[in-house]
Write a structure and sequence with these properties.
The complex is a heterodimer of chains A (284) and B (483). With 284 residues, chain A is α/β, with parallel strands linked by helices. Chain A is 38% helix and 21% strand. The chains are: A alpha/beta (284), B alpha/beta (483).
């Protein structure tokens, strides 16, 4: 044991030992990971597949200690209600541990804005389209008895009365509006009634109304996320790659017209937090 | 020395990690408050306010109440959607008929039989002659109910996914009919984001003007409604200041139902409230009942030219005086019977029919005494009447110049207690036959008249003998009450 004590070493060995300690210190230092600001791109309609992939990236961000902050890069018209809510709730879990900042590109409408308010800070471009808070859905068919299809109840085939479907929209809308109120808090300069109008605002207007926090793109969003996480000299990484996900899966979401044009309407009926832009020839 | 070296060694071990750590991490992320998410479980589906009050019975229909529902103007509704209103009308004795675009008879013609007209969600404009006939119908006391609905006037897509649309604006189409009554339906919809009936476009209305139409109403629910304006009409049902128009996003003075034209024309901005389940929300059932009463209350005066629609039931022919039942007369009556039969009306003959029967009375001017009960309400000066200033052979009608009785026959329509009496008077039997023939062929080209009276050229005279027969004096409304 004595041989391991510094005084027992000769002068030369002392320097060698110190150099070894320094090397060990450097190795130890190198074990401290460079922090990462992870980016999650939401640039497709929010549906089952895209939501699952975003949630996988959120899981990666939460479990990966290198990822100290997350930037949500949003450019989406929204999507289905349940998938949007699923991503929103996962974001809430992530925010409990790490800051999340959103940056809006061309559009964060409806469900996409739902996700944006689930972050700590929102950036938008001056001409981004922001808002469109509300729910849409096409009513189910009028209940009828079908000759060739047997069922066990009046709404087994139709899901419910048309009137009930309309009222369900209100319950979904209430959740959306409360999410906006909770997410924006005192920063919001709109009343609940004004939010419920479902308007789309330009980014500059959205800033004035408190729907977003600042104007800017990805870089300031990353910098802000890093500041919130108290990190510096960080790396930026796409969480899709960190999570080991393949390239984005394109899932048909919008109905394709017979002439091959993509319409603004969802392929399937249901409840949507979705912005359907006015089509050519339609009255505003 | 040893201690110093030990500390140096520790420093060499720790400092690099410390430097690197501080290089990257300058603080600890800490969230002050937990992340709040919506209380999803607290959001419930809003339920409609069901009325606890039973809908009062609609007033009983006056005999002959006949409600015509127009479906000839590319109307965007299904007959089933009006079922609660139709049931309320029918239950209380009113007759309901639909006029479709495939019917051989026009709206103008069918109005002759109607006491009330219902127009719902039209998307084709009303032609000028149709508007004039409806205007005359209202002037005679008929009731008109125009139902519009923003959900029926919105862009209609040729195919849901094709993005090609055709605008079918029910407000514009309805306005072509309502313009003479100074009613304008706006191309908008009312909405309320705070207090509504399950959706922002379903508005609850609580402001009612005093009217039998709004009796016992506390709150009605409209399921997307146009706002309606009328400078001269009565804003029957109005929205509160929190209910806004989609056109301006402003509220105040927005009416969803307007009554005009001496309370004979009612325009309502919604149609959906009539359909189940909305017909039993709030006081909608009472409102529908009141609408039925409104429709049943119309008793328009009849013009002879409305034949055969002036009758709503079996008709008895009664000949007065010494009118000879000649072969020609019987032939003419047979033709008349065929015409009535086409309208589902039976024609019989009787010398002394019951007072309550629908009658066609045949007479000549010579039958002054027997005619007296039938012409008493018309203020007519018959030729040669004792004591009057007219000389024999002259005929005086109220507001008309003196006519040559030998060349002019009269058709008089009177309604009493729901029964209609059509009196045909000619100079002689052949003149009466000519009048019957005019009725049977529904050719009134030789007749001139209005309200309940028509003068027709008969015998040797021709139509020019009636030229300028009308004076500038207004012709009084002829009720023609019969004994």
């Amino acid at each position: 044991m004595r041989a391991w004590k510094l005084p027992a070493l000769g002068p030369a060995w002392r320097w060698v030992w110190l150099a070894l300690l320094l090397a060990a210190g450097i190795v130890l230092a190198l074990l401290i990971p460079r922090p990462v600001v992870g980016t999650i791109y939401v640039n497709t309609p929010i549906e089952a597949v895209s939501a699952r992939e975003v949630i996988a990236q959120i899981d990666e961000a939460r479990s990966n200690p290198r990822v100290r902050a997350v930037v949500l890069v949003i450019d989406s018209p929204g999507g289905t209600v349940a998938d949007t809510e699923a991503v929103y709730l996962e974001l809430a879990r992530l925010r409990a541990a790490k800051p999340v900042v959103s940056t809006i590109g061309t559009m964060a409408a409806s469900g996409a804005y739902y996700l944006a308010v689930g972050s700590d800070y929102i950036f938008a471009m001056p001409t981004s389209q922001v808002g469109n808070v509300g729910v849409i859905g096409s009513l189910p068919p009028r209940p009828a008895v079908l000759e060739d299809v047997a069922s066990t109840g009046p709404y087994k085939l139709f899901g419910g009365p048309r009137d009930s479907f309309l009222r369900q929209l209100e319950a979904v809308k209430a959740g959306f509006i409360q999410a906006v109120s909770l997410g924006r808090g005192a920063r919001l300069n709109l009343t609940t009634e004004e939010i419920a109008r479902g308007e789309i605002y330009l980014g500059s207007d959205a800033l004035r109304l408190g729907l977003v926090d600042a104007l800017g793109g990805l870089s300031p969003a990353i910098a802000h996320a890093a500041r919130m996480a108290h990190i510096a000299h960080y790396a930026v990484a796409d969480l899709r790659e960190l999570a080991g996900l393949p390239a984005a899966t394109l899932v048909p979401f919008f109905y394709m017209a017979e002439d091959g044009r993509a319409t603004a309407y969802p392929l399937e009926a249901g409840l949507f937090l979705l912005y359907v832009p006015p089509a050519e020839g339609r009255q505003p | 020395m040893t201690r110093r070296l030990t500390l140096l060694g520790l420093a060499l071990l720790i400092v690099p990690a410390l430097v690197r750590g501080l290089w990257f991490y300058q603080g600890v992320y800490w969230r002050g408050s937990p992340v709040a998410t919506p209380e999803y479980a607290s959001f419930t589906v809003p339920l409609p306010p069901l009325s606890t009050a039973e809908a009062p019975a609609a007033r009983s229909a006056s005999p002959g109440a006949h409600v015509l529902i127009d479906q000839s103007h590319a109307n965007n509704f299904l007959a089933a959607e009006l079922e609660p209103l139709v049931r309320a009308v029918s239950t209380h004795g009113g007759q309901v008929e639909f006029l479709t675009a495939n019917d051989s008879e026009s709206l103008a013609t069918r109005l002759g039989a109607a006491t009330a007209l219902v127009v719902a969600a039209p998307s084709a404009p009303f032609m000028r002659d149709e508007v004039q006939r409806v205007e005359a119908f209202v002037g005679r006391g008929g009731r008109v109910l125009v139902l519009t609905d923003p959900t029926r006037g919105s862009p209609q897509y040729d195919s849901y996914y094709s993005d090609t649309s055709t605008t079918l604006d029910d407000s514009s189409a309805a306005n072509t009919l309502l313009a003479p009554f100074e009613i304008t339906v706006a191309d908008d919809y009312l909405y309320n984001l705070n207090e509504n009936e399950g959706n922002f476009r379903n508005v609850l209305l609580t402001r009612f003007a005093a009217s039998p139409l709004t009796a016992d109403l506390g709150r009605v629910a409209f399921y997307a409604a146009h706002s309606i304006a009328s400078p001269s009409g009565l804003a029957l049902i109005s929205a509160d200041e929190h209910t806004l128009s989609s056109r301006t996003d402003r509220g105040g003075d927005l009416a969803a139902a307007v009554l005009a034209a001496n309370e004979r024309v009612l325009a309502v901005g919604d149609l959906s409230f009539l359909s189940p389940p909305y017909d039993h929300v709030a006081d909608n059932a009472r409102w529908i009942s009141n609408l039925a009463s409104f429709l049943l209350g119309g008793e328009p005066s009849r013009a002879p030219t409305d034949f055969p629609y002036i009758f709503s039931g079996p008709v008895v022919v009664q000949a007065l005086g010494d009118l000879d039942m000649s072969t020609d007369l019987i032939t003419a009556l047979s033709s008349l019977q065929s015409t009535l039969d086409e309208s589902g009306l039976a024609l019989t003959m009787a010398q002394s029919p019951e007072a309550s029967a629908n009658r066609i009375v045949l007479a000549t001017y010579a039958d002054k005494e027997e005619l007296a009960p039938f012409v008493g309400g018309f203020e007519i000066g018959l030729p040669g009447a004792g004591g009057d200033p007219l000389v024999t052979g002259e005929l005086q009608l109220p507001g008309w110049r003196t006519l040559d009785a030998s060349a002019v026959g009269l058709m008089l329509v009177a309604r009493n207690a729901g029964q209609t009496t059509l009196t045909l008077i000619g100079a002689d039997a052949s003149a009466v036959i000519e009048l019957i023939t005019a009725l049977a062929t529904r050719d009134f080209s030789m007749c001139i008249g209005q309200e309940g009276i028509a003068a027709c050229a008969t015998g040797p005279a021709d139509l020019p003998s009636l030229d300028f027969a009308l004076t500038n004096d207004a012709v009084p409304t002829l009720d023609g009450a019969l004994p």
